[in-house]
Amino acid sequence: MNILLKITAGLLASVRADLQRPHQFAFERVGFLTAGAARVQDGLLLVCRSYHPIADEDYERSNSVGAQIGSSAMRKGIEAAYANSSSLIHIHTHGGVGDPEFSGVDLRSAPGFVPGFFNALPRMPHGLVVLSNDSARGLLWSGREDGPHNINGFVQVGSGVQKFGARA
Predict the structure, then answer these.
(1) 51-80 confidence digits (pLDDT tens)
(2) Nearest to residue 110, comparing CAs of 85, 83, 132, 130?
(3) Are 87 and 47 spatial neighbours (Cβ–Cβ below 8 Å)?
(4) 57 neighbors 23 (Cβ within 8 angstroms)
(5) Strand order in the sheet with 2-8
(6) Confidence bin at 43 (pLDDT 50/70/90)
(7) What residues are paired with 156 via a beta bridge?
(8) Can you tell me the distance from the alpha carbon of 139 to that of 117, in angstroms, rounded to the nearest whole number?
(9) β-sheet bridge partners, residue 48
(10) For the stretch 131-153, what's the b/e string if a residue is b when 16 or more beta carbons lie within 10 angstroms of its beta carbon?
(11) In this structure, what DSSP letter does residue 112 have?
(12) What is the rounded CA–CA span in Å between residue 55 and residue 150?
């Protein structure tokens, strides 16, 4: 399946700026994107609508992960997506340049929480994105029982169009 994610330059800049902010005890920040989804000839097109940062008080202390968020953060993300019948995409950054890699924690934890998004929004795809400073990688579940699919392309739109990450 071919999956393309489009995001405006302004929204992507806001996401990157938020994810760079320090937190009192978490080593990284996370947030949620909402997106419209449409079937296209050979797959899916996701068009990002909004970004929802995780509130400082919704992070939980953990010695095993860079950032752990609680059920309140998940509920707020799901509510944001539900308000506009959107896809929900968990997003964070690993910094650096080039194609980012998901950590082992990302790959172990996402199959535990992303399918839960289907409880509120069963007809929308949901996923996980990790950014670097100039690229991205993503996984998308098209249904609760489906395994994840790679997001094959990322496009930033604004005064110009720029591809900033892809995974074949």
Answers:
(1) 999 999 999 998 888 898 999 999 999 999
(2) 130
(3) no
(4) no
(5) 149-150, 136-141, 126-131, 87-93, 30-40, 43-53, 2-8, 153-157, 161-166
(6) very high
(7) 7, 162
(8) 14
(9) 35
(10) bbeebbbbbbbbeeeeebbbbbb
(11) H
(12) 28
What is the maximum alpha-carbon separation in the chain? 46
d(CA 19, CA 37): 24
The 10 Å Cβ neighbour count of residue 114 is 21
Joined together, the tokens standing for residue 132 give 């670097």
Which residue's structure tokens are 């760079």?
Answer: 20
Token pair of 70 as six digits: 């609680």
**Residue closest to 30 by CA, chosen among 52, 61, 47:** 52
Structure tokens at 56: 């400082």
Strand partners, 90: 32, 128
Place 26 in a pLDDT band, splitting at 50, 70 and 90: confident
Amino acid at 140: L
Interior/surface letters 73-86, b for 16+ CB within 10 angstroms, e for the rest: bbebbbebbeeeeb
